Amino acid sequence: MRTYVVPYRIIFGNPRPLPLCELELIGRTERVTIDALVDSGAEYSVFPRKAADDAGLDLPRLSNGSVSFGGSVEPAWKAQVDFELEAWRLRADVLFVERLQFPYALLGRRGVFARFGEVAFVEKTNSPRVEFRGDRGRIEL
């Protein structure tokens, strides 16, 4: 069984520790670094629209969806994009929004968690990490 390991940092001070990782959004002209919450409760990954603009990605002219989080519904621009987590390259549908309710993006289940048989958060260690185990499809490294 193949395991992909993504280290994260835990930001304390909230009611619960937040597992934040760093990823790179890959655009036509640039790569943009994004802090993202590894969120098993999010159906889609949600990134700030500014990151897509900075990376030179072509998003639809008009919003083509919406996303509900933080008690509000926001218009979203859904696009299939490439991003890297450590040396692991993924292509997934991402919802881009003008206003995030949080100071970080969300890394969700579709296109990420769903590729694996098991996802484990390993926190009681000096090197907290999420382990994606048992890949179910082609993953580029």
Distance between the first and last residues' Cα: 16 Å
Count of helix runs: 1
Radius of gyration: 15 Å
Number of strands: 11
Secondary-structure-based class equals mainly beta
Proportion of residues in extended strands: over 45%
Order of helices and strands: EEEEEHEEEEEE
In terms of per-residue confidence, which ranges show pLDDT below 50 for 5 or more consecutive residues? none
The general outline is: globular
Sheet of most strands: 8 strands, mixed
Textual characterization of the structure:
The protein has 141 residues and is mostly beta strands. Strands 2, 3, 4, 5, 6, 7, 8 and 9 form an eight-stranded mixed beta sheet that branches. The chain contains one helix and eleven strands. It is 5% helix and 53% strand.
Characteristics of this structure?
5% helix, mainly beta, 8-stranded mixed β-sheet
List the helices and strands and how they pair.
Layout: E1 3-7, E2 9-11, E3 18-26, E4 31-38, E5 45-48, H1 49-55, E6 65-69, E7 72-85, E8 88-97, E9 105-107, E10 116-122, E11 129-135
Parallel strand pairs: 4-9, 5-8
Antiparallel strand pairs: 1-11, 2-3, 3-4, 3-7, 6-7, 7-8, 10-11
